[in-house]
Specification:
The complex is a heterotrimer of chains A (about 270), B (about 280) and C (about 280).
Chain A: H1 16-19, H2 22-38, H3 42-59, H4 63-71, H5 74-87, E1 92-96, E2 99-102, H6 103-129, H7 132-143, H8 153-182, H9 193-199, H10 201-224, H11 243-265
Antiparallel strand pairs in A: 1-2
Helix pairs in contact in A: 2-6, 2-11, 3-6, 3-11, 4-6, 5-6, 7-8, 8-10
Chain B: E1 2-12, E2 20-31, E3 35-39, H1 46-53, E4 61-66, E5 69-70, H2 78-84, E6 85-88, H3 101-111, H4 116-129, H5 146-158, E7 164-168, H6 176-193, E8 196-201, H7 204-208, E9 213-218, E10 221-226, H8 228-232, H9 235-240, H10 247-257, H11 269-281
Parallel strand pairs in B: 3-8, 3-9, 6-7, 7-8
Antiparallel strand pairs in B: 1-2, 1-4, 4-5, 9-10
Chain C: E1 4-16, E2 22-36, E3 41-45, H1 52-58, E4 67-72, E5 75-76, H2 83-89, E6 90-93, H3 106-117, H4 121-134, H5 150-162, E7 168-172, H6 180-196, E8 200-205, E9 216-221, E10 224-229, H7 231-235, H8 238-243, H9 250-260, H10 272-283
Parallel strand pairs in C: 3-8, 3-9, 6-7, 7-8
Antiparallel strand pairs in C: 1-2, 1-4, 4-5, 9-10
The chains are: A mainly alpha (about 270), B alpha/beta (about 280), C alpha/beta (about 280).
C-alpha cells in the first residue's frame, strides 16, 4: 500500500562521498549535469562514465541501488529514444514499413539515452549519500546570498525539513484512514474517473483536518521552544568545509575542464 | 456461525529488509455472541489480528473462515464481509468526514447500496443505540466532544448491521468518566443485540469486568486464551510480558499470603469487597 | 514568591458560528489564584474540558489572561519584552508526541531549543548529551523519531525542553496518547527530573495513578480549582472525585468501599501495601 513509497532514498554507510559537505555534493551534481550537455563526442562520454564510475565506487553504494532510480523514468527514456530514432531526418540506414532509422537519428537516440541515464544515476548518487536533512542544510547555506534580495532562505529550508519529517507520518495516516473507510464499505478502486474522484472525499477530508491540526500544534510547540525565525539562531551542526571538500571541488572542476577540452574543443 | 482462524501467520513488509512476523501461528475459534477482550501492548499483533478478521489484511499463510467460508477465496465478497464484521478504528478522527453527524452515519449503509429509506432508518437506529440525542444529528461531527465522536464512529459501523463488532482501543484519550460511559454503552449494546463483540485494549483493568473471554497477545503470538479469572491467575507471567493483572488481583494475592482466606481469582472491586468482608467477619 | 503564581486569572474566548458571528463567550478559566513553589512536583487533574490545558498554556505565555495576572519566576507573562525569557524558564511538553518533534534525527530535535536561544555550537552538543541521558534516550540519539515508540518520543520531547535549561517544566497530558508501558516510562523520567535535577514539574493529567507521587494536587472543574491538597487528602474524598468525572485507583476505591461496609480503615489509602497492612491489623 502507501507505506511502500519511500522518500529520501538515503543509503546508510560510511564512505568518503558520504562524509563530503552537502554543498560540495550539490555543486558537483550541477557541474556533472552541465558537463553532460557540454560533451558531444565519444571521448567526452567516456570521461563522464569514468568520473561517474569512480564516484560510485568511492560511495560504497551497491550499483543496483543506482539503477533502481531508472525504473521510474523508463517510459520517459523509451519515448526519448523512439522519437529520436525514427523522427530525425538524415542518411537512411534501415527502413521498414513507414519507419526509417537514420544515421543521425541513431546517434541522437544513443546520446539522449546515455545522457538521461547518467543524469539520473548522477543525481541518485547525491540523494543516496546525503541525508535529506543535510541536503536542506546545504541548500540553505548555498542560497544564503539570495537573502539580499529578500528571499526567505531560512524559512524555505525550515519548511522543507518539516515537510520531510511529516510526509511519512501523513502517509501512515492516509493508510489508516483508508482502512477505516474501507471497513465502512468504501471503495477506492472501481468505477470511472468521476466516481473515483468522488470516492476520495472520505479520505481527503479527515486527512486535511488532521494535517491542519498537526500544523497548528507544531507551530505552538515551536514557539514554546523559543523559535522566532532565523535571526540570532546558532547551529548545532554548522557546515564547515574540511580539506577533503576542497580536494573534491578541485577534482570536480578538473573534470569539467577535461570535459570541455576533450569532449568539445579538441575533437 | 463463527469465525475460525487456522494457523494464521502474517509477515509485515515481506520481501524487504524490515520484514518481521506480526502474527505467528494464531489459532482461534470465535463462536457467535461472545464478549471478548483482546489484550496486548503496542506492537503485540492485536491490531494486525483484527484487521485480518474483516479482510483488510491477508495472511501470509493459514486461513480465516467466516461462517464456514474462506474469506480469502477468489470471488469471496469482501464488501459484504466488512458489513458483517464491523471494525471501528482507534481514532474517530480517521473516519468522520461528512457535514453532519447523520450523513456520516449514512456512509456505511449507502456503500452497501441500500435504498434511501432503509439507509436513514438504519442510521437513526444506530445513533439511538449508542446514545446520541436527536439534537446532535445535524451538528458537524468535528464539533463534538471526544466521547461523542467515538459514539458516532461506532454508530457509523453499527448502521451496517454487523454480526460481529470489533472495537480497537475505544477508550483511548477519554477521561475516566468518558471511558466508563463508553464501555457501559458497549456492554448494553451487546446485551440488546446479542452480537459478538471484540474489545481491543491494552488495559486489563478496563475490560476485565465486562468480557467473558480474554485473549492475550505478546510478540505476535496468542499467549493466553481463557476466562478473565483464569488468565489473571497467571499474573506473574503477565508481568513478565509487561502486562499487569488488575490491582485487585495483587491485593487478593497478598492477603492470601498473609493468611486471610480469600479467593484469589477475584478481579473486580465489588467482588473483592464482599470476599474481604466475609473473610474478616468469619 | 514561588516559581509560578496566578492571581484572579480569567480566560475567555469568543465562540463564532460558521459565518463568523459571535455566538457566545466561554469562560475556560475562571478566577484561578494559585502558587507553585520552586522544586515542587505539582499535578493538575481534571476531566476533559475542565480548563486544565487552558491553564497550562498560560504558564508558558502561549495564552494571555483576559483578566488577572500570571507571573513566571517573577515576570508578568503579559509583558512582551519578557516573552522569550518566560518561555525558556517554563518549558512545555504537549500531548501528541508526533506534533512537537521538529528534527528528523533525535539529537537534532533536542538541539532545536538551544539553537533558537543562540547557544554556541559546542555547548549545544553538551546540553543535548546531558538532556538525552537524563531521560534515558542517549543511545537513540542517531535514530529517526518516526521509528520510536510513543513513550520514547515523549521522552525525546522532554529532553528537548530540558536542553533549554528551564526552571520549570509544564507537561500538558503527556501520557494521554500512550499505552501503559509508555505512560510508566514518561512518568519515571519526569519524577527523576524532579528528584535529581530539582526542576519544578507541573503535570496535567487525568490518570489518577500518575499523581500519587506529587507534592501537591489541584483538581480543576468548570474552569475553577475545585480541590487542592496532597494526593492523600484528595483521594480520601472518593465521592467528590466521582462527581468531578474522575476516578480513584482500585486500591483506594476498595478501601473506601470496605470502609462504607463498616470496616475501620484510615482515609486515603494509596498503595496495595497500606491496604493489606490495615486489613491484617483488623484481623488481629
Amino acid at each position: 500500500m502507501l507505506k511502500d513509497i519511500t522518500l529520501g532514498q538515503y543509503y546508510q554507510t560510511d564512505s568518503v562521498i558520504h562524509r563530503l559537505d552537502p554543498r560540495v555534493k550539490l555543486v558537483s551534481t550541477v557541474v556533472f549535469i552541465i558537463s553532460l550537455f557540454i560533451v558531444d563526442n565519444f571521448i567526452g562520454y567516456l570521461i563522464a562514465a569514468a568520473f561517474l564510475f569512480a564516484v560510485i565506487k568511492l560511495s560504497k553504494v551497491p550499483f543496483s541501488f543506482m539503477v533502481r532510480g531508472m525504473k521510474s523514468i523508463l517510459i520517459l527514456l523509451l519515448f526519448a529514444v523512439v522519437f529520436n530514432l525514427f523522427l530525425t531526418p538524415g542518411e537512411v540506414l534501415v527502413s521498414f514499413w513507414k519507419l526509417k532509422i537514420t544515421k543521425e537519428g541513431l546517434r541522437l537516440a544513443v546520446m539522449m539515452a546515455v545522457r538521461l541515464m547518467f543524469l539520473i544515476i548522477g543525481s541518485s548518487v547525491m540523494t543516496l549519500t546525503t541525508t535529506p536533512n543535510h541536503l536542506t542544510d546545504g541548500l540553505e547555506k548555498l542560497l544564503n546570498p539570495l537573502k539580499v534580495f529578500k528571499v526567505p532562505v531560512h524559512e524555505i529550508a525550515m519548511m522543507m525539513s518539516i515537510a520531510l519529517r511529516f510526509i511519512p507520518i501523513l502517509l501512515e495516516e492516509t493508510d489508516k484512514i483508508m482502512k477505516a473507510q474501507i471497513a465502512r464499505g468504501a471503495d477506492f478502486e472501481s468505477g470511472n474517473l468521476f466516481k473515483k474522484a468522488k470516492s476520495l472525499v472520505p479520505l481527503l477530508v479527515p486527512l486535511f483536518i488532521s494535517a491542519f491540526r498537526r500544523a497548528n500544534d507544531l507551530a505552538t510547540a515551536m514557539e514554546a521552544r523559543c523559535y522566532r525565525g532565523g535571526e540570532h539562531r546558532t547551529k548545532m551542526k554548522p557546515l564547515v568545509y574540511a580539506k577533503r571538500d576542497f580536494m573534491a571541488y578541485a577534482f570536480v572542476f578538473g573534470y569539467l575542464v577535461l570535459c570541455i577540452v576533450f569532449g568539445k574543443i579538441l575533437f | 456461525m463463527s469465525i475460525i482462524l487456522d494457523h494464521v501467520n502474517y509477515i509485515y513488509e515481506e520481501d524487504t529488509t524490515m520484514a518481521y512476523p506480526a502474527l505467528t501461528d494464531v489459532n482461534l475459534v470465535i463462536p457467535d455472541g461472545q464478549f471478548i477482550g483482546l489484550i496486548g501492548h503496542t506492537g503485540s499483533g492485536k491490531s494486525t489480528l483484527v484487521q485480518h478478521l474483516n479482510g483488510l489484511l491477508k495472511p501470509t499463510s493459514g486461513a480465516i473462515y467466516y461462517n464456514g467460508a474462506d474469506i480469502n477465496d477468489e470471488g469471496y465478497d469482501k464488501k459484504l464481509l466488512r458489513s458483517k464484521v464491523g471494525l471501528v478504528f482507534q481514532y474517530p478522527e480517521h473516519q468522520l468526514f461528512e457535514v453532519d453527524v447523520f450523513s456520516d452515519v449514512c456512509f456505511g449503509p449507502k456503500n452497501l447500496g441500500l435504498d434511501k429509506k432503509e439507509i436513514q432508518l438504519r442510521a437513526y437506529a444506530a445513533l439511538k443505540q449508542v446514545g446520541i440525542a436527536d439534537e446532535y444529528f445535524y451538528q458537524s461531527p468535528f464539533d463534538l466532544s471526544g466521547g461523542q465522536k467515538r459514539r458516532v464512529a461506532i454508530a457509523g459501523v453499527l448502521a451496517m448491521k454487523p454480526e460481529v463488532l470489533i472495537l480497537d482501543e475505544p477508550t483511548a484519550g477519554l477521561d475516566p468518566k468518558g471511558r466508563d460511559e463508553i464501555l457501559d454503552q458497549i456492554a448494553k449494546l451487546r446485551e440488546e443485540t446479542g452480537m459478538t463483540v471484540i474489545l481491543v485494549s491494552h488495559s486489563m483493568e478496563d475490560v476485565a469486568k465486562y468480557v467473558d473471554r480474554l485473549i492475550v497477545m505478546n510478540k505476535s503470538r496468542v499467549v493466553f486464551d481463557d476466562t478473565p479469572a483464569a488468565v489473571f491467575a497467571h499474573y506473574e507471567e503477565l508481568e513478565q510480558i509487561g502486562l499487569a493483572a488488575p490491582q485487585i488481583t495483587y491485593i487478593m494475592q497478598a492477603l492470601r499470603e498473609k493468611g486471610l482466606s480469600v479467593d484469589t481469582g477475584i478481579t473486580t472491586v465489588t467482588e473483592a469487597k464482599e470476599a474481604i468482608l466475609k473473610a474478616l467477619r468469619g | 514568591m514561588g516559581i509560578i503564581k496566578t492571581k484572579d486569572l480569567i480566560f475567555e474566548y469568543i465562540r463564532r458560528d460558521e459565518e463568523g458571528n459571535v455566538e457566545g463567550i466561554t469562560r475556560a478559566v475562571d478566577n484561578v489564584s494559585l502558587k507553585i513553589e520552586q522544586g515542587d512536583f505539582v499535578a493538575v487533574l481534571g476531566h476533559n474540558g475542565s480548563g486544565k490545558s487552558t491553564l497550562a498554556k498560560h504558564l508558558n505565555a502561549i495564552l494571555y489572561p483576559t483578566e488577572g495576572t500570571v507571573w513566571v519566576d517573577g515576570k508578568d507573562t503579559s509583558d512582551d519584552d519578557k516573552l522569550w525569557e518566560i518561555r525558556q524558564t517554563a518549558g512545555m511538553v504537549f500531548q501528541n508526541p508526533d506534533n512537537q518533534i521538529i528534527g528528523q534525527v533525535v539529537e537534532e530535535d533536542v538541539g532545536f531549543g538551544p539553537e533558537n536561544l543562540g547557544v554556541p555550537t559546542k555547548e549545544i552538543w553538551e546540553r543535548v548529551e546531558e538532556s538525552l541521558k537524563a531521560v534515558g534516550m542517549y543511545e537513540f540519539r542517531k535514530h529517526s523519531p518516526n521509528k520510536l515508540s510513543g513513550g520514547q518520543k515523549q521522552r525525546v520531547s522532554i529532553a528537548g525542553v530540558i536542553a533549554m535549561h528551564p526552571k520549570c517544566i509544564v507537561l500538558d497530558e503527556p501520557t494521554a496518547m500512550l499505552d501503559p508501558k509508555g505512560r510508566k516510562e514518561v512518568i519515571r523520567a519526569v519524577r527523576a527530573l524532579n528528584d535529581v535535577e530539582r526542576i519544578t514539574v507541573i503535570l496535567i493529567t487525568h490518570y489518577m495513578e500518575e499523581i500519587i507521587y506529587a507534592d501537591k494536587v489541584f483538581v480543576m472543574d468548570n474552569g475553577t480549582v475545585a480541590m487542592e491538597g496532597t494526593p492523600r487528602e484528595i483521594f480520601s474524598q472518593v465521592e467528590k472525585l466521582k462527581e468531578l468525572r474522575l476516578d480513584v485507583p482500585q486500591v483506594t476505591l476498595l478501601a473506601h468501599e470496605l470502609k462504607q461496609g463498616g470496616l475501620d480503615l484510615p482515609d486515603g489509602i494509596l498503595t496495595k501495601e497500606e491496604l493489606v497492612d490495615a486489613l491484617m491489623k483488623l484481623k488481629k
